[in-house]
Amino acid sequence: MNKPRLEGKDRKRTMELTISLEDVCRIVLRAREYDAQVPAVDPDDSSNMADDKAVDVLEDSSNTSVEEELRSMIEDLNDDEQTELYTLMLVGAGDYDAAEWDEALAIVTDEISDIPDALMRTPMLASLLETGLAAFGLDCDGMGTAG
């Protein structure tokens, strides 16, 4: 399998990824769904939906299947791909810039033991991954919807 050679716009720096852009974008889509979930906060919640006018259905409440699917997608990546995904998130968060990719990759390899769990606890994961991709001139536009 060929490793994609990804060059950022206006950069002489090149990074090689083992994770495909398609996989990153699929994870971004699921992470966006996961990030959008909120706990139910209806103060007038009752045991009968008719009594409280069924307002709870308007909230995008926690859906364990989305969480499980996102976690599974991350866990299905090999160690190198997980490390790259986490490093993209760090670049997106501004902890490192694109020129520090190799350094960030080494730090993640040495210091983060449970990458899937760390990513699942990251607020705004989808946005951070997209910002990380953008730092290299990449995006998920045109990738369509993933199933």
The number of E-state strands comes to 2
Structural class: mainly alpha
Report how far apart the termini are: 23 Å
Are there runs of 5+ residues with pLDDT below 50, and where? 1-12
Which range does the strand content fall in? Answer: under 5%
Q: Helical content, roughly? A: 40-55%
C-alpha-based Rg, rounded: 18 Å
Number of helices: 6
Walk me through what this model shows.
By secondary structure, the chain is mostly helical. It is built from six helices and two strands. The protein has helices at 21-36, 64-75, 79-93, 101-111, 115-120, 125-134, and strands at 5-7, 14-16. A hairpin with a 6-residue loop joins strand 1 (5-7) and strand 2 (14-16). The longest helix is centred in the N-terminal third of the chain and has 16 residues, at 21-36.
